[in-house]
Amino acid sequence: MKQYYIIVFILLVLFSCGENKKPVDGKQLFLTRCITCHGTDGNAGLAGSAKLGTSTYTKEQIMNTVKNGQKAMPKVDLESEEEYQAVADYVLSLRK
Ligand code: HEC
Questions:
Q1: CB–CB of 71/47 below 8 Å?
Q2: CB-based contact 86:37 (threshold 8 Å)
């Protein structure tokens, strides 16, 4: 029985390591954190939000908007600098 617990413990450790190494997916972050206001294509304009497809913001400005909020947009807390970078890259990719 004791061995069983040890195996479960090792599996949990392995699993959590794998979880941390998961590549940051900007699209997935956008779909979970931004579409409620900006819509799947970034242009829904709900709650008076800016249309991201025609925004002229630089990557830096997008990251600052997410980190600090902007007028009616509340700041969105992400987990790491990489996540801010990834979601900003995805926002840039929404432009035609
Ligand atoms: C609660 C609704 C809401 C959520 C959630 C939200 N936004 Fe916004 N966003 C807004 C609003 C409203 C504005 C317009 C702010 C203004 O009037 O300047 C805005 C503006 C922006 C702008 C500025 C564009 C420009 O040209 O002025 C960017 C970039 C942006 N949002 C990106 C994001 C990203 C990326 C996420 C997800 C991480 C996100 N937003 C989540 C409501 C939201």
A1: no
A2: no
Domains of the chain: 24-93 (1.10.760.10)
- Per DSSP, the three-state class of 94 is coil
Residues whose CB falls within 8 Å of the CB of residue 76, separated by 6 or more in sequence, listed in order: 33, 34, 66, 69
- Bridge partners for 70 per DSSP: 73
Mutation probe of ligand 1 site: the residue of 70, 81, 94 with most atoms within 8 A of C-beta: 70
Atom 6 in ligand 1: residue holding the nearest Cα? 34
Report pLDDT digits (tens) over 62-78: 999 999 999 999 999 99
Angle (nearest 5°) at CA 71 between 70 and 76: 45
